[in-house]
Amino acid sequence: MSVISQIAEGNESLTEEQVKELIAQSLPAVYYAGKKILLIVPDSTRTAPVGLLFKAIHKQIGDCAAKLDVMIALGTHPAMSEEAICKRLEITLDERSSQYSTVQFHNHEWDNPEAIRRIGTIPASTIAELSNGQFEMDVPVEINRKIYEYDQVIIAGPVFPHEVVGFSGGNKYLFPGISGSKILNFFHWLGAVTTNPMIIGNKWTPVRKVVDRAGDMVDVDKRCFAMVVRPNNSLAGLCFGTPETAWDAASDLSAQVHITYKEKPFHTIISCAPPMYDDIWVGGKCMYKLEPVLADEGELIIYAPHIKDVSHTHGELLKEIGYHTSAYLLHHWEEYKQYPWGLLAHSAHVKGIGSVDKDGHEHPRARVTLATGLSRELCKKINLGFADHRTINIEDYADRENEGILLVRKAGEMLYHLKQRPPWAGGPES
Fold it and tell me: Between vectors from CA 388 to CA 386 and to CA 394, what angle results, nearest 5°?
């Protein structure tokens, strides 16, 4: 299907009326009469005006559709409470119990076998082709079985540069958003082996190809509102189509809106995590988006006094694994291969790229230090640096780019790249 899109001019943002007009054009009420619709949206770890879209979609088809429900694409993130979902949808509890009382809220349950349906397998030969020969293995494809109770799935989520897939959005709200763990673990590790600098901000990555191939196997009618979101939560653009076509258009715009180019790398980066990142599992994005501009042997400090946990869901296993380069994990594969590969991928992405010497010792390209609520002892245990956040005044790092010091006040969504990429980020060999 063709893409319906609305792009704001220059640095402006779409108005609420423009958004409502696009939704009305995209979802003609007569088509949805008597149909059951499931709206899939991200959790609170993504900046996006989800409430604006939810309320506009509900107003457009809520009265004529037989059902209009919401599922939170959690991946492996913790479930959201009723109150938290209302906040995500920008509705009050009173509105929830009145005009939105018929809407059912569903949290994805990635770890509940009864909630998951296997829909097929991507064969090893196809995986070899999609991964450029990095892997050759059968990959089971599983998804939340509840989607088959509906006539159509509508995805409404943002598109940002992403460390695992290149650009988020589209079918990524299905895989891993509402998928089982097997394909999730596989393609996250594929992304880690390929490395963050070689993937992030690139469009047709091996992981995107795997995600889209899995999306092809979901035989439910699928539509997508792909949002390109400015840091102030307004929309630079909104694209509607299939998960593939809407994402295709939105990722091109995201590349213009969400990537900042720098002339030289920085030896010191202060990367401030916003409150929506409440553990290292998601706070690691403060490293991913800035690794491409971190100098060799430099230091990136994740400044987040509010973060007091490694991961609400996977914390104990990550304390066992620690944070290591993918080169180290591959060198010691027999020791680590039994762990969920998605956790290994997170470990490698936070640590950054590096090498291993003949004795098996790792040499990260640069240092990652946590200035968080995690103790010095815990940081040492998980193999990351420690800084006491109470001793850091972030303003001391402001306006010093000419000294090789970069302060990013809200990190995690804007990608930073060098104008001339080094070989490890896809640039030419010297």
Answer: 110
Residue 231 near residue 258, CB atoms below 8 Å: no
Domain ranges of the chain: 4-257, 261-425
Q: What are phi and psi of 275, to 5 degrees?
A: -60, -25
Q: Does domain 4-257 have CATH number 3.40.50.11440?
A: yes
pLDDT digits (tens, 9 = 90+) for 212-249: 999 999 999 999 999 999 999 999 999 999 999 999 99
Backbone angles phi, psi at 108, to 5 degrees: -65, 140
Which CATH number describes the domain made up of 261-425?
Answer: 3.90.226.30
Burial of 341 (0-12, 13-18, 19+ CB in 10 A): buried
184-213 burial by CB neighbour count: b if 16+ within 10 A, else e? bbbbbbbbbbbbbbbbbbbeebbbbbbbbb
Tokens 């990652």 locate to 368
Q: What is the pTM of this model?
A: 0.94
**Residue-level length of the chain:** 430
Closest CA to 421 of 306, 265, 242, 209: 265
- Tokens read off for 364: 């990260």
pLDDT one-digit tens code per residue, 358-406: 999 999 999 999 999 999 999 999 999 999 999 999 999 999 999 999 9
Q: What phi and psi, each to the nearest 5 degrees, are found at residue 73? A: -80, 85
The Cα 266–Cα 279 span in angstroms is: 25
